[in-house]
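Hey, can you fold this one?
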Amino acid sequence: MSDLSLVQKILYGVLVILGISFWFGLGFPFANHNESFVIVTQLEKMDLGDVLTNRVYPVANYRPLGQAVAWLGYTLGGRSGASVQLFNYVVAALAWLVLFFALRERRVMGFAALLSGGVLFSGYIYLFHLHGVFYSPLLLLVAMLFMLETKTITAGRLWVVTLTALVAAFFHPYALPVFLAALVGFVLERPREFGAFRRMLGGTIVGALALIVVLVIVPRHESLMTTREMLEGIVTSYRMVEVNSIVSAAVTLLVVLTVWSFPITSTNRWIALGAALACVVVAYILGVPIMFVWIGVSLVKAILLKKWWLGIVIAGTALLPGPAATGSPTYAIFVIMACTGALALSWRGAEEKISPWGDWIAGLTMVSAVCLLILLRSGVQVPVLSRVAQPIIAEREKTFQMEEIVNWLVHSEYARYEPVLIRRSDNPRGASDAVDRTHRPPTDQEYLSKYTGSRRQGDAQPGKTLLVGFGGDEVPGETALFTVESSQAGPARVFLPPPK
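Sure. Predicted structure:
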């Protein structure tokens, strides 16, 4: 077990969630964002029974618990998404803490999670909108699988994780295949712990969950993605995580640390490190995300440790961005957690070396992070960090600009005009502005039209439109009817289009 005192456990536990907590504290709260615009128009017309029995658009499958939490948070929170955003964060933070306490190498885990959570944060954009309610429970399931790794698998523990998987599945269907894959790995890895009774129990669980998958969980997509679209979606998701050279450097460091944690001789470790860095160079030259190299070396470590469940989970969660193929970075957070856990797992040498100085570094890091967060939230310009923080602050401000524009529109003489976005807001896989979001609107046209329609009196007049732009977009020769200024996002403007 871990040799940390209670104070040290608290210290490193806070360090584990410091990365995601810093960025969440900087961005919270958002107004409606992405799908939230169309989801709230439905929640406002539904009761609890409706959200438990019907599918909310654009959700692709049956997710009653996620929809119920969204409805409760939005309704009880005064028609604001802030309480749902807090739910998303609390469950995500709990997931990382569960992973932290599941491992023996808690000092290593603290610093590894700080690096992965603090630098690879783009996937956690889901924390800030209603649609994000579906993802944190699946993250919690991934963390709980590590609890089975470090403890004897008893019937009671297996039932606890199984129930967690079942609950998580009614937030997001990916929970069931992740759990079933891990269960197969545990049976292969530790057959003695799965005696006749537990094999029977495992078979019952597999059969029951497979039936649930077929009956209620299987996605109901209008069209199936092609193999090429799925591959493009996977690559785009990891590219959206690895958004710039600074993040690529951090991922390279994670590659180095993971290889250095391999349970092999010193000579072989240097050979493995050389091979991994060569893969990093090739990936950089080809323009392929270095995330793939980190996933690869994490998979190798799982194999070297003969942790078959972990290898299967890493491989499986690495492919989760494929089925939806949107290119969203959110689908990468699950493999990031699995790889971070793999980095720390069984690295006792590093745990012992960190011991003399780790507490001081952890404490200083936390104090510094709190001070920087206060400065940034106060609007103080911090060299380098303010530039790094600008995208998330700007995205937050755009959501409030959009709310203010809609509110102005429905109470103005143009109330029955249709707001039309100057720029499209396509999924990252098909968008050219998914990284540089200067002019990218905070939602897409379909969602905005439904949201505006729910707030105006009467239908829009045919042929009557207004143009809406963000980040200082202009319509040549036209003067803005309405402008919402922003310190970080630039002005958002509404224009009356020139007559045809």
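The longest strand covers residues 465-469. Let me know if you want another pass with a different chain boundary.
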